Amino acid sequence: MYTSSRENELNKVKKPPQTSDPALKPSSPAPQAQLKLRKGKRTAQAEKAQDHQPLNQDLQAHQIELQAQNEELDQIRAELEAGHRRYNDLFDFAPVGYISLMEDGTILEINLTGAKLLNIECVKLINRPFGLFVSPQSRATLDNLLKNVFNSQKKQDCVVELLKDGQAARWIHLEALCFDAPLGRECRVVFRDVTELKHAENALLESEAEYRTLFENSIMAISQTLPDGRLIHANKAYAQLYGYGNPEEMMAEVTHVGRFYANPEDREEVLHVLAAKGIMEPREMVVVRRDGTRLNVLVGVREIRDSEGNLRYLQAVHVDITDRKRSEDALRESEERYRQLFDVGPDGFAVIGPDGCIRRANIAQARMYGYDSPGELIGVHATRLVAMSSRDYSAQILRRRLNGEDISAVGYELLRKDGTTFYGETLAAILRKSDGSVSGYICVTRDITEHKQAEQALRDSQEQLRSLGTYWQKSIEAERALISREIHDEFGQSMTALKMDLAWLAKHLPAGEEWVKRIQGMNTLVDDSIILMRRIATDLRPNLLDDLGLTAALEWQAHEFSNRSGIPCRLNLYRHDLELDLTLSTNIFRIFQETLTNVTRHSHATHVDVKLEMEDQTLIMTIRDNGRGITEREIKDHHSLGVLGLRERAAMSGGSLDIHGVPGKGTTVTVRIPLPISPSDGGKS
Q1: Is residue 366's pLDDT more than 70?
Q2: Crossing angle between the packed helical segments 53-92 and 30-47, to the nearest 10 degrees
Q3: Which residues contact 511 (CB under 8 A, 6 or more apart)?
Q4: Domain 545-674: assigned CATH number
Q5: Helix H segments across 566-640?
Q6: CB under 8 Å, gap of 24 or more: what pairs does 423-426 form?
Q7: Which class does domain 93-199 fall in?
Q8: Of all residues in the chain, what percent carry a pLDDT higher than 70?
Q9: Are 30 and 65 spatial neighbours (Cβ–Cβ below 8 Å)?
Q10: Is 624 a residue whose pLDDT tops 90?
Q11: CATH assignment of 218-320, given 3.30.450.40, 1.20.272.10, 3.30.450.20, 3.30.70.1060?
């Protein structure tokens, strides 16, 4: 326990001197001393003279009286020391800190509780400035406290933060009062730890700030009103909901929230529910905005009361559900249209569960599969409606759809109730839950049996037409070959005989310039006719194609093309021995011949490149020029019989023909014809 120097002065109480003679020690107060004195007289008479007795009696009386006073002082001093110890115990172990400060803030004395709050021993605090133990942020507050308390002589208080000293921040509350002490004016301060209270206050301030931030910036419309309807607070969302630019503008104009209710009964209902429960769960109501338009809103209201249970205000939250209402109305209309389409649509509709069983079907679906009513299909597994020939394919399509592949309508062979089959086209959509799992499928089925029959009939017709075209082409080629041979054989023999006759005439006619000129002219005419005959015969059917094969015929045709058009034609031909049938060779040659003719007529090209190659037993011929480039419109023009003829010739051989043009850069014709046999080994030029 610490005791100040001024407290030590209280202990300097001097005891009176005591005698060492036991006979002189008083044993009682004054009456008792007189009794002893009378008893002592008889003893003193025998020992001392008569004239000293009064003086001895006085001395003894004073001695006894002083002894009694000394004993009384000892008792008072013991009680004083006991009281002082109790005071010190109360001072040191009080639940609050006590400290005495000089006007400059120097510590004069402090109790143990105060030293513990400062986390320093008492002896180390005496005569040190109290401000050293206060955080820099709070020292100005402490200085103001001391200044005010010494100037005003009234109680002052404040809250300051202590130095952290590596620990969490601690706060103390100070209550100070000035008084005059023997050594000068002092300030007695009572202080206590208010850290938890400070934290609670800070938490409350933060909570209030968070609430205010939430209130002001919430997307929900929030208002605070008195029970009589007067508006006291509103956030921005609330003001904007009702057509105001900001809460201030709204507060300046609106005095009562009852004006916003389209139905006055709704306001009465709110008050009635609050009176019964203190809170009204969100209810749908119609409100009127500033411009008179109406909104559908959800209104939730609750009473806000203080700690004593007194009603402070009503807090309401308004949520605009106008768009949601429109969406709900649109959804209902959509569901109605869907229901009508589902129930009475011409196509079959079925809702299938994740287990594959039908949960719902329309009338068209039932009739399509030969059932009397949609109810008969409920619970039937979907695979029972698919013919065996299409079940594996339908399972494959389902797996692809589940993997996210976008697949359009697919045709299957389907199975009726009576076991007969028909062709149907099915479009399926996967229904998923919010977590992505499959909740079912919706399938739309259309009977395409007649369509399939029509497609088959069309394919048969096209095949017949192609067969007829092939027959015509073969007939034309045979006729051309016959005419070519007739011209070559018959007309050639006639020209040869005529030339021999002209030679005989030149020998046997009389000499004459006129006859010689005529015979020479006739020989020239016969030679030109022979050349023309050969060209016509070759155009009808080149003998090289029959005698030397496709490669030689292509080389000859390219040479003829260059001679006639003046356009160079570069060849890069496959040099393997191609064992092609006569019809295939003829079709390829005719495609080449017709393409070169089109180059001469339309392309305005300056050179042509031709490539013949084999790739995976497919014969590929590419003809590329550097002309103007054919357009898509010209390619798709149904009057372009030349393009159509080229494609038909390729199709007759089981191949395809592709035409691609780039404006200003030329046209490329690519023919692909698969061959049933592999070519023999050889080189390539």
Answers
A1: yes
A2: 140
A3: none
A4: 3.30.565.10
A5: 582-598, 632-636
A6: 423/447, 423/448, 423/449, 423/451, 423/452, 424/348, 424/368, 424/448, 424/449, 426/394
A7: alpha beta
A8: 81
A9: yes
A10: yes
A11: 3.30.450.20
CB atoms within 10 A of CB 26: 22
| CA proximity to 109, closest of 163, 181, 160 | 181
> How far is residue 191's CA from residue 173's CA, in Å, rounded to a whole number?
5
In CATH terms, is domain 327-447 a member of 3.30.450.20? yes
Residue 619 gets the label, from left (phi > 0), alpha (psi -120 to 50) or beta, of: beta
pLDDT of residue 205: 82
- Could you give the CA distance from residue 223 to residue 236 in angstroms, rounded to a whole number? 10
Regarding pTM above 0.85, the answer is no
The pLDDT confidence band at residue 179, using thresholds 50, 70 and 90, is: confident
**202 burial class (0-12, 13-18, 19+ CB within 10 angstroms)?**
exposed
* pLDDT digits 0-9 by tens, 390-448: 889 888 888 888 887 877 788 889 999 999 999 888 888 888 888 888 888 888 888 88
Task: Report the chain's mean pLDDT, rounded to a whole number.
Answer: 80
Query: Quick check: 293 pLDDT over 60?
Result: yes
State the pLDDT confidence band at 379, using cuts at 50, 70 and 90.
Answer: very high
Per-domain residue ranges of the chain: 5-90, 93-199, 218-320, 327-447, 545-674
What is the rounded CA–CA span in Å between residue 212 and residue 2?
Answer: 51
The tokens for 43 are: 């003893």
Q: How far apart are CA 140 and CA 67, in angstroms?
A: 60
156: which 2 tokens? 């002052």
